[in-house]
Specification:
The protein is α+β, with helices and mostly antiparallel strands. Helices cover about 35% and strands about 15% of the residues. Its EC number is 3.1.1.29.
């Protein structure tokens, strides 16, 4: 077992690639010399880890974080240490995959009740009366 606990939503290490980047932020002058930020890349389109339906939902969920080739990039640079940023990136990836793995419930369309339709139409009539009353007074009155 590696330095990270295994999670059923975390892809195998072979499907992940990491790049370390300069981050800025807290850490004094030392921060300009150490690459503590992490760019975690996961090829969603070419992955054997996910089923096709989960891949589709993950691509939709990822938004701007996924490129045209289907590679998801997660940047983690909020912590001072590389180890914590790596853990953060993996945790965010597993959260995203977990969300995508849940199949959304199918909405069963319902019809408004008779009372709801009556109330809606009455509210529209009332609103119309209010708007008509806003006009210039009738000179014949």
């Amino acid at each position: 077992m590696g330095p990270f606990p295994r999670n059923r939503f975390l892809p195998p290490e072979a499907e992940l690639s990491e790049r370390f980047i300069l981050t800025g932020g807290p850490g004094g002058q030392h921060v300009n010399r150490t690459e503590t930020g992490v760019q975690l890349r996961f090829d969603v389109a070419g992955s054997n880890f996910l089923d096709p339906a989960t891949k589709t939902r993950l691509i939709d969920l990822a938004g701007r974080r996924i490129d045209s080739e289907g590679v998801l990039t997660i940047e983690a640079k909020s912590h001072r240490s590389q180890r914590r940023n790596r853990q953060d990136a993996r945790a965010r990836l597993t959260d995203l995959i977990e969300q995508a793995s849940h199949k959304p419930r199918r909405r069963i369309p319902t019809r408004p009740t008779k009372t709801a339709r009556r109330k809606r139409l009455e509210a529209k009539r009332q609103r119309g009366r209010i708007k008509r009353a806003r006009g210039k007074p009738d000179p014949n009155d």
